[in-house]
Amino acid sequence: MKLTIERTALLKSLGHVQSVVERRNTIPILSNVKLEARDGQLKLDATDMDLLIVDSAPAQVVEAGATTAPAHTLYDIVRKLPDGAQLELDASADNGQLVLRSGRSRFTLSCLPIDEFPVMSGGEMAHRFQLNPGDLRGLIDRTRFAISTEETRYYLNGIYLHALSDQSAPVLRAVATDGHRLASVEVPLPTGADTMPGVIVPRKTVGELRKLIDETGDMIDVSLSDSKIQFAFDGAVLTSKLIDGQFPDYERVIPAGNDKELEVDCKLFADAVDRVSAISTEKSRAVKLSLTPGTLILEASSPDCGSAREELETAYQGEIIEIGFNSAYLLDIARQIESSGLRMSMADAASPTILREADNDSALYVLMPMRV
Is the pTM value of this prediction over 0.90? Predict the structure, then answer.
């Protein structure tokens, strides 16, 4: 394999694929990126056996061929070369090395045999549809903060994506929960998605997918089966195994009888929560909300640091209620609210609270209270 490629083009593609590669691997080949040159393109593949990303960059191919090279090392080298540099890549099957030349710089990397690189087939993807990048970005950004990191509850370690086609306005809904909070966001159902199965997209896949979305302006092709999902962008294709588990019946934890409603300016509220929680050194960062007609009082206290109290004017006219929350969880939700108003629906101090945008019902958040 022998080719010349522009540094910026190679760096962009390497940036996409190298983040899939784990820093520590018990299988040496999984530390490598597969490089394949032919037909004026350099194709790059990287996998961790659960996730595969394929990208390509234009190149002047002198001699077609393929090799594998250490992904992170190659990325670091290319990243540190000057802008606008032309890179020569030369891999000989005889000595198992990749030589990279740029100007007066020369690097030699050890390669592993191409036939050791694992094949992760996409399989038969029976369900196909297209998603607007903005819609997919919104589904991810407004739910992924609630993905559980508890490995024992592996079925919560991702975003549950499913279609609701049996209602007046069919939607594609994304849901994530860690048992303390729940995020549910929906967008209009894309054509062709009505028969898709409910799938759980893993947390790592969600992170890699989110990076690629910002670099595309075109519609994203989504293909999926019961076990795999694939996202095709301008030049990159991301294929991932799905979490093999049953997502819980999340609708059961969304309360239906919360009759105490508060509407408050979201930024003022978030800033006040942030300020009063600074007094608490505890891990829970508990903050208490006291609601009386016309007033919302936020309080936090710590045996070591003292106490904090702040008042906000509201149009609340319901019963007096005191309820406590983890302030970090409360702020996570407040940061997802895109409109100026935040609407909170409560029942009592021990029941889950529903949070929404004041003028948009496409996103719903449920937060469990805590003792304060």
Answer: yes
